Amino acid sequence: MATPREIAAVTTSRADFGLFEPVLDRVGEHPGLALRLMPSGSHFSPVYGPTIGEIEARGLDYERGLQMRLDSDSAEAISKSLGVGVLGFSQAFAVRRPDLLVVIGDRVEMLCAALAAVPFNIPVAHLYGGKVSEGAIDELVRHALTKMSHLHFVTTATHGRRLLQMGEEPWRVFNFGSPGLDRIGKYSRASRVEVCREFDLDPSRPFLLVTFHPVTLEAAQRASQISSLIEALEGVDAQLVITYPNADAGSSDIIAALEAYAAAHTATVRLVKNAGARLYFDLMAHAAAMVGNSSSGIAEAPSFELPVVNIGTRQDGFERAANVVDTGHGAIEIRSAIERATSNEFRASLRGLRNPYGDGHASARIVEQLAGVALDDRLQRKKFVDWNMPS
């Protein structure tokens, strides 16, 4: 009997684990594959959960010893933690080289695994390449991962074309849609009453789901941005479920402001470190609208016909469905956008909305490729395809 092909899958945060989950399940079920889950990054940070508990609760075995985050969100601390991450993944690959390494998205910590894999000649498969998010350093990380990868699983045709512009060979690029959408049909949906009971909300009143991350290319404006958001929320007649930001530089400033705001509004505001995928989807299913700058408002909210107020530039370049209302950072602008998004007319206009990021069956197609691709010289030896620009 042939030895199963080892698939090493890297997850560094609550966000990418949720997007990865359907692929991990499929890998684990495939008779010709063996899953080697390698969690790192903020999964081990007490500030954000820690979300390693979510992985343990699912009964998933995982590689130990890959912790890398330091107790600070300063630029210096994050840069140092990347060095620790490269060291940890290098040592793990030296002990046992996987057949394929799978990385996802654009978190800066994900670079550690891909970089460590280069000297070992480990072929890399990358999920969610080709996106554009002009307001964050994620943009740089995502495209760097593309050039270090040998297989690409993109979520839209536009994303695939961008990889071709970057010189990737067409046979390496597969547009299967977003595996994150595969989860939506998997979970049984809790009722509105059950969700409100979980978060101690009044089910007779509407609630907004708020997620605001640092805009890493606009650090100087961070304080004013979160201040304007809080000012806008002050004037909204709704309950609020606010989630913690990602573990980016400057996240502690946002957390401190949100904690102070929640402490002053205990009757109407719930601040959540980590809801987990199931509860987060339940919140999206029953919220009056989503407010903030999270990519989940762009990529997943359309599947719920959920209105989204997208603030600022963090998601600039991200393809949008009709559920998104874009706005600047001014408090009056944000409040006006919330009023529009929560209107009966706007909600009615979203009935039958199609999600441009896939059909909810991406993970099966991805795993089929991981199991069947030849791990040969053709895969390893990348060729740059020149784009014939007009002279």
Strand content: 5-15%
Can you summarize the main beta sheet?
Answer: 6 strands, parallel
- What is the strand arrangement across the widest sheet? 2-1-3-4-5-6
Whole-number average pLDDT? 92
Q: Quick one: CATH superfamily of the largest domain?
A: Glycogen Phosphorylase B
Low-confidence segments = none
Distance from N terminus to C terminus (CA atoms, Å) equals 56 Å
* Number of contiguous helices: 15
Structural Rg: 21 Å
- Under the CATH scheme, which class of the largest domain? Alpha Beta
Residues in helix, %:
25-40%
CATH architecture of the largest domain: 3-Layer(aba) Sandwich
The overall number of domains is: 2
Q: What's the order of the H and E elements?
A: EHEHHEHEHEHEHEHEHEHEHEEHHHH
In CATH terms, what is the fold-level topology of the largest domain?
Rossmann fold
**What is the 3D shape?**
globular
* Strand-pairing-aware structural class: alpha/beta
Number of β-strand runs? 12
Task: Please name the defining characteristics of this protein.
391 residues, alpha/beta, Rossmann fold, 2 domains, 6-stranded parallel beta sheet, globular
Molecular structure report:
- By secondary structure, the chain is α/β, with parallel strands linked by helices.
- It has helices at 14-29, 52-57, 75-95, 110-117, 138-147, 157-165, 192-198, 222-234, 251-264, 276-286, 296-299, 331-341, 344-349, 362-372, 377-380, and strands spanning 5-11, 33-39, 100-104, 124-127, 151-154, 173-175, 207-211, 239-243, 269-272, 289-292, 308-311, 324-327.
- It is built from 15 helices and 12 strands.
- The protein has a 6-stranded parallel β-sheet with strand order 2-1-3-4-5-6, with helices on both faces. Strands 9-8-7-10-11-12 form a 6-stranded parallel β-sheet, with helices on both faces.
- α11 links the parallel β10 and β11.
- It is globular.
- The model has no long low-confidence stretch (mean pLDDT 92).
